[in-house]
Amino acid sequence: MINLTINGKNISAEEGTTILEAAKQNNILIPSLCYLEDVHKIGSCRVCVVEQEGAKNLQASCITAVSEGMVIHTNTDRVRKARKVLYELMLSDHPNDCLKCLRNQNCEFQKLGEMIQVDESRFEGAKSKDYIDETSPSIVRDNSKCILCKRCVTICNEVQGVGILNPQFRGFSTEVSPGSELPLGSAACTYCGQCTTVCPVGALQEKDSTKTVWEALLDPNKTVIVQTAPAIRIALGEEFGYEAGTIVTGKMVSALKEMNFDYVFDTNFTADLTIMEEGTEFLGRLLSYLHSQKVIDAGQLKSLGFEPSDSAPVLPMITSCSPGWIKYIEHYYPEETPHLSSCKSPHMMLGALCKSYFAEKLRMDPKNIFVVSIMPCTAKKYEITRPEMVNNGVPNVDAVLTTRELAKMIKNAGIDFASLTDGVMDNPLGLSSGAADIFGAPGGVMEAALRTVYEIITGRELPFEKLHVTPIQGLERIKTAELTVEDAKEEWKFLNGVTVKVATTSGLKGASILVEEIRKGESPYHFIEVMGCPGGCISGGGQPRPTNDEIRKKRIAAIYAEDEGKVLRKSHENPDIVSLYEAYLEKPLGHRSHELLHTHYTKRKKI
């Protein structure tokens, strides 16, 4: 432990701790801007400067480690003047359009000005950059508002491992953008939106879809259907002052109905459907592998509903729910796309069903149905533009709103969210199991799949407490588990003794590690779950700000509480899913399922 003094207070901190961290641990507030806990520590803005006795210059507290006997002052006249000058210099190159900025009243730069009591801007002059890049379907980059904190650079390079955002040019001309002066829409951006969650100002934002949705709601010729992802219901409340992880499912449904959506369906319904399709697909690949190894013969394969294939089975199979991850593998590992499940993501499945199965029930032209998805993810805005996401000439989903956008619309509609009573999802696409809820948590898709696949094979529930596969839960970058089949049902007895190895990762840097193993022929796994954002959908690019590990843990706990509170906790037990197959889809991986629920992928270049 290191002993030091901050503002006359004797404190101790572990060796390697920065002054900023030591102060925070002892309830001493030092203003900062570019710093992000455990993510971004480069001291670029210098707002966190402090005065150290015996040092000639002010020290950036976010990058200066504590030392024995150090005496620090955080609020001297010299420090306060320096912070004000630094702030005013940044302000001189920043637009003064707070009232019309999307980040108004939720802007870290604005809050910092209030904290350090800046009430004038003494410096005027030329603006360094005013370019607005709207070429991406998901993200808008407004260079005029960029304060060069470089948080987005760190998240893109160090956390996600994509690396398309970097400082370009020098001096007054410096800007953060893709290289070669490419716009975002032409770069190998995955549109994950993690840059939008860490940007302290309005320089990086999701592309606004609220106007499009309002127009649809006001169109008397449109039947407007809305669906909500599992991660929305445990984060939306934060935009209305609720603690992170508060479950607001019922209030969310009531708000959507007050906004005059014609039907409120649940993306969780098709999360259950995804498990039926993806789980069956995985079983097919596993059985084909065992057939190629002569563990089972063609007759056994056929008896289980699978046809022998001359092509080599592609294992491990990788989940396909995250469009940011899909775009990443298409750009950076295009030769490995055969490992992807062919399943569309759950919200695209539900959109396809709304404009086929449900349209037929309503006897309505699908062209008059407008489907809106409420998603935690900015990459979903890109996903709906993919040409593969069209059936019978109409797009599966017409618009995507982030959690933040939905909150803005609720406020704009004059709805008092806190006073709402709990509403319920509409039928027939609104009932879901707890397995669908956990899609929002890291490892959740894999756990949901194992709950169903294991029970199909053995007739018994997963041998884990409360059905939770704990080795693949949590925020670690890569998690693994093994599951050995024992006492399988008679028709599956040849699987006795087979050990299935699985891995899960959240964040694209972890995904690259697992795909590199596949590329080198070294992967030991049969099934891999990839979520594009660190921490999974609960911390997607469209979720409320801020998102840190403390908030992630609260959201994850809420996801599992939602799961455990349900009577139905396995996808194959959802009676509406069973009815859908009986009345319309016939069977998983059937002809109609392939038409509506499955897709293919595109090999892309990095530029």
Index terms:
4 domains, five-stranded mixed β-sheet, Rossmann fold, 20 strands, 607 residues, Ubiquitin-like (UB roll), four-stranded parallel β-sheet, Alpha-Beta Plaits
Give a written overview of the molecule.
By secondary structure, the protein is an alpha/beta fold. A hairpin with a 6-residue loop joins strand 3 and strand 4. The strands form six sheets. Strands 2-1-5-3-4 form a five-stranded mixed β-sheet, sandwiched between helices. Helix 8 crosses helix 11 and helix 8 packs across helix 15. About 35% of the residues lie in helices and about 15% in strands. It is built from 19 helices and 20 strands. The longest helix has 26 residues. The protein is globular, with a radius of gyration of 26 Å.
Q: Averaging pLDDT over every residue, what do you get?
A: 95
| Structural domain count | 4
Largest sheet: 5 strands, mixed
Q: What does the radius of gyration come to?
A: 26 Å
Order of strands across the biggest sheet? Answer: 2-1-5-3-4
* Global morphology: globular
Return the CATH topology of the largest domain.
Answer: Fe-only Hydrogenase (Larger Subunit), Chain L, domain 3
Low-confidence stretches: none
Q: Tell me what the CATH architecture of the largest domain is.
A: 3-Layer(aba) Sandwich
- State the end-to-end distance: 49 Å
What is the CATH superfamily of the largest domain?
Fe-only Hydrogenase (Larger Subunit), Chain L, domain 3
Percentage of residues in strands: 5-15%
Class by SSE composition? alpha/beta
- Percent in helix: 25-40%
Number of strands: 20
